Every structure is written in structure tokens, then in C-alpha cells.
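Take a protein:
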Amino acid sequence: MAGNARILVVDDEHSVRWAFEKALQKAGYEVMLAENGIKGLSLFESFKPDITLVDIRMPEMDGLQVLKRIRELDPEAQVIIMTAYTDMETTITAMKLGAYDFLSKPFNIDECLLLVSRGLNTRKSKVEAEIGTQAPKSSALKGNSPAMQEVYKLIGKVSEEDVTVLITGESGSGKELVAQAIHYNSGRAAKPFWAINCTAINESLMESELFGYEKGAFTGANSSKPGMFELAQGGTIFLDEIGDMNLEMQAKLLRVLEEREIVRVGGNRRIKVDVRLVAATNKNLRKAIVENKFREDLFHRIKVIEIKLPPLRERPEDIPLLARYFCSILASQRKGSPKSLSDEAIAVLSAYSWPGNVRELRNAVEQSYTLSRDQVILPEHLPVEVRLKGVPKADTGTQSVASGEPASLPAVSFMTENGTVSESRKEKEVIGAEVDASAFSVPESIRKIVSVSLTEEVAGSAYSAVMEQVEKELLFQTLEKHKWNQVQTAGYLGITRNTLRSKIEKYGL
């Protein structure tokens, strides 16, 4: 953000103004200077800075008066107070007036630049949070890339046309968000939107979920219950992962789509339904037809229009927007001061391939937001797998670990209970373990993983932290292996499906 950011410095000392002007301009900021509060307020209105640095002790109008007036002009203004007098009363007063932070004299220029950068990132997050709060439901779909622009065009074309739509794309790419955008931009927007995952519902229960059942239809049916087609009258039904629906259920769905009426399980009364169907899948349905796993007539019935949603790796320019959007959502949901992603963290996120797509990116941002103790999320707060494989080439000058070549990470540091630990040294240990994995036995690899993890955790939470990291990764990779089929995944892991579901919800997978 440095290239476009504007900084206003208000201080009555010429030497301070001169030092800030040189340092901030060298860092790429546009700078304006004011020698007193009155001129500073005038420049604030005309220059409209992103960050304002104000000295607390000035003649005619002191820094607190300037701060108060600036916040009246712009309640979202980021103001950093500069002072050599950090007494409690002054600090409390300034924070009540809305100061972003304090800068103590004498200055360390690197600390000044870091504080300015954090302030700009926080401001950026607040803007994203406002957009996320004010936008309609359909705008949860984010992305400005050419690939997403094509998706938006298709959504615009099909929304008003009451036709069935098939959305194809990898798991986690946001297919349900596309379905929501179609619904909320259509003439059915005021009516219900119902979504069901065909993988998550037991085959024996799918018919009753969609079409409802009559009292006594089966053991436990103590009363009649309408199905999703009835509940969604006038609205839209979204069938996610329709490729996992069994052939018998496919035949029944086809009949409903053609006749526009349903019969409840255990009933004989035909009920007219008026719903729009939007389906989605991560499978190749054309291949499934050849393998006799999907009905060709149903395929043509649901694919009047097909929208292909690109994976995140094919639209990397959308990663910064999505990451900041997720961060802003978390900031609006969590207590305490809002956090923001540093430019360095964004660079690492942008360099990662995101096999789990937007879902994985959201999980990574949420994990980083939770673990970060500062207001700014740095690269060391990101998940290990993202840090290792998401090293920007411009920063390393080498190929990524994913290519099989050695990689080096930028030297950053973090604090543990025992003091400062070099992040670059720690990361190299992990890189070595990953690149030369064939040289280690499984127990030895586990020892290395635990050793690295323990450097990141504080006493009292090490066990749960390490075990949760391993469990989350095991679940994610096994789900990927079985294409997110929960029945197969649970069987492979040797756990019940209910246990798997609760863990998926726990880790946000």
C-alpha cells in the first residue's frame, strides 16, 4: 500500500519534520508537513491522509485538540500521537479520543515505519469490513480476476432466466456462493433458498429429505413432514455434489423436474411444486455417464446452463482481496482490536497453490487471526504448510519446495517463552525434513514435526496444540484423498461418521 498511501506529519520541530519526510518518502509514501495544529487541520481536509502523525506538545493547539478535531472530521481517521510524555492521563485521554497508537520520542525510524505500516493495514481491513457488512448476500462471492468476471457475467445472464443451472468446480471453490448469487439476483430472491449436500445425507434418507414423508411411512415417522421441495416453494433448491446421488434417486429427481410435482414418502397425493433447481458437482459427470454412475437424461436436464468455477490457483490475483475480506469478517465477529494482514503475509498467501481452494484460504486466515497476538498478522503466524510452499520467488531467488528444489525463507523472528527464536532457522529444519523425506523413518519425521511445533506453543497448551495440528492435517488429507466423501473417509480412518462430522465442524474443513 506504500505506493499510494498519504502521510501527514504535524510537529513544531523542524528536525522531526525533516527526518520523517526523508524516511517516509524513501519508503514510498506521499508526505505532507505541518508546523502547527491549525495548518495540520487545514492540510488534513485538503490532503486527506491515510495516516496522520501528530506531536502532543505544540503551541496554540496541542496534539489532543488536533486529534479530537480530526476524529470529528473523519471518525475512521488513523492518528498516531508522538510524545516524550507518555503519562497515564495523556494516554487514556488520547485513546478515548480515538488515537490509533503512540510513538515515543526519541524515535527509532524502523519502529516508526513499522507502526505506520500497521496503521495502514488496519485501515485497509476496516474498509473491507464495511464493504462486507453493507454488501448484499450475493456479494459473498469475491474476486476481480478476468476468470471471475466471466462467472459474474454468466450469473447475470441466467439469474432472470428460470432455468436449471449446473455449477462445476473443485471442492472449496465456492459453488454454493454462486448458487446463492443466482438466487438473490433472480425474481425468486424474496422466496426461500434451500441447500442440501448429497454426500452428507444418507441414501435411505435422501428421498424423505427432498420430498417429505407422511405419518407412519417408516419407524419413527410419528407425524407428517414436508420435504425440501415443499419448503422451498417459489424459491431455489441447491443440490451440492449431485454426482454422488445414487441412480434410483436420480430417476426420482428427474421425474420431479419434468412433472413439477412430488409425492411424499408413504403418501399417494401429488403435490405441485414451483422451485428452481441449481446443482453443483466436483466430479466429471460426462465420465460418470460413460461409467453408468450418472443418468444421461438427468445430466441434460440439470445442465441447461453450466457455470465452471475456476480453482483459486488459476486466479491468484484474487487471493489478497479474499484474504483481507476474511480478515475483515473475523474482525467484525471477534472481540478486541481488529487485526489485519501485513503485506508480507499477503505475499506468502499469494504464492501458495491452495489445493483446498477458497475454503482452505479462509481456514488459514482464521487460524492466523486466532494465533496472532499482535494487531498485524505476519508470515510467521500463517500455517506451516503455507509458509513452506508459499514463499514468494522474489524474496527467495530459488524455486519453491513444491518443485523439489531447496528454498530459503526471509529471516524473521518471533518470541517464545525462552526468548527470540530465528524463524528462518526453524523453517529450514522443516524444509530439510520435507525435501529429504525419503531419508527419514516415520517416527523420525514425527519427532521433527513435534520439535518444530513445540517452539511455537506456550506451556499449558502444547499437547492440545500439537495434536490438533496433526489431527486437522490428517482429516484434510484423507478427505482430499476420498474427494470429500464422508462415508469413505470415516471408514478409512476407522471412526464413525458422526465423529468425522463433528471434527470437520471443529476445524472448519
